[in-house]
Amino acid sequence: MFDVNAFVLPGDIAGQVSxxxxxxxxxxFRGALISPLNPRGEAESYKLNEALLAALRRAPxxxxxxxxxxxxxxxLGERVRGIRVYPGAGVEGLxxxxxxxxxEKLALVISVRSAWGRPALHLGSxxxxxxxxxxxxxxxSGVSYHEAIWLxxxxxxxxxxxxxxxxxxxxxxxxxxxxxxxxxxxxxxxAYPLQNPCVAALKLALSGLSPSILQEIGEKNAVRVLRV
Length: 228
What we know:
Elements: E1 2-8, H1 13-25, E2 31-36, H2 41-56, E3 63-68, E4 80-85, H3 90-104, E5 107-111, H4 127-132, E6 138-141, H5 148-153, E7 161-164, H6 173-181, E8 186-187, H7 197-205, H8 211-226
Parallel strand pairs: 1-2, 2-3, 3-4, 4-5, 5-6, 6-7, 7-8
Helix pairs in contact: 1-2
């Protein structure tokens, strides 16, 4: 399995990456896309992005970064596979992230929320980005039941949109998304360390979906879209 939604916090980034590998590995994850969690301002974003990339240079292959927009290092390097935009970045931040992702040929990872509760990002604000940057893979992260109607009624219109499922916990929710979007547009995430990795593993195990579909959601889609 591959985790497309893991985080590190300010502090010992190298130690956190090492712990993340151990914790995820215990549940069968072979890699992860890691971001600094909701940094405050460009200065902190830059500092955390740099520390994360330094830690990943010493990590095994399979672990990559989605750097926070606004603090991206001058040289992104081979361990970067995405640009992450948090709710507080607003429309300007979304566009900046999309432009950078397009230029660097990376995925744009958009967090609807970075904590439990109602989202700070309205999905209607994504439409212009999805339509203008059609060649950019957009991974929508942190969706929950608040976004369920939009995901089944609007999201299918945008073939470059993918959905990460770490916070989508409703009963039969994974089946609902498979029926609406198809298995090739869903990706597994844990939201580690906000959640225990067992939540993601159980979500697949209890879904009742076929092994081939679970392989697509659990790893194959991330490998294909993120080039990991």
